[in-house]
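Course assignment 3, question 2. Fill in each field.
Student: A.L.
Task: Predict the tertiary structure for the chain below.
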Amino acid sequence: MTYNVEKVHPYKSEASKKEQVEAMFNEIAPNYDKLNGLLSLGIDGYWRKESIKALKPYRPEYILDIATGTGDFAILAKKFLEPKRIVGIDISEGMMAVGREKVKRKGLERVITFERQDSSALSFPDQSFDAVTAAFGVRNFENIDQSFGEVLRVLKPGGLFLFTELTTPEAAPMKALYSLYTKYAMPVLSNTMATEQRAYEYLPESIAAFPQGREMMLILKKNGFRNIRLRRFTLGIATLYMAEK
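Answer field:
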């Protein structure tokens, strides 16, 4: 099945979504962390922390962080969960280069490593990880079903798939305020960082097309996950999904 968000591409070109997403993130990597905090008004850090804390009862020792980007989620997982190993994967070498520098500065190289991999074709053996995480990356997947199938494959029985994604608020007045913010404020803020404008036009387009709430829970169920639940942050601007193998 093809989902609408898979048809939303960063650029108007013949390249695949994967290729376009990779090019976009390589381009914006140097400014990504600063701009991300600016666009979310700093709330993204709270969303990440609360999401990682939801993993505490599972005490994962081996964690795979998909679409790891600059490694913030992986670094938080090390801080709050103290696992033996975290592997961060991404298709953007530019983003991971920033992440490697952050990990090196913090002296976490023995725990956190990075690999260039596609979520839809992971190289890891079956049942390799206690938990798989992702922060704000699932809507960039070229094939959600195939990627979820890979997540299920590499998870150990009883393991948790946890991901946080930007979503569209469903209730007033936040729905109207969010629409105004993404249409008018977000482009102005992104311009202040002199970053690639198209990347932050793609952002609200991909959020609007992303399956959310009950629809996403049904997708997870269809792909073999169980005990599926969600938690909404900041009146629905972001949503945490949790599902077990």
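Instructor remarks: The mean pLDDT is 90. Strands lie at 62-66, 85-90, 112-116, 129-135, 155-166, 226-233, 238-244.
Grade: pending
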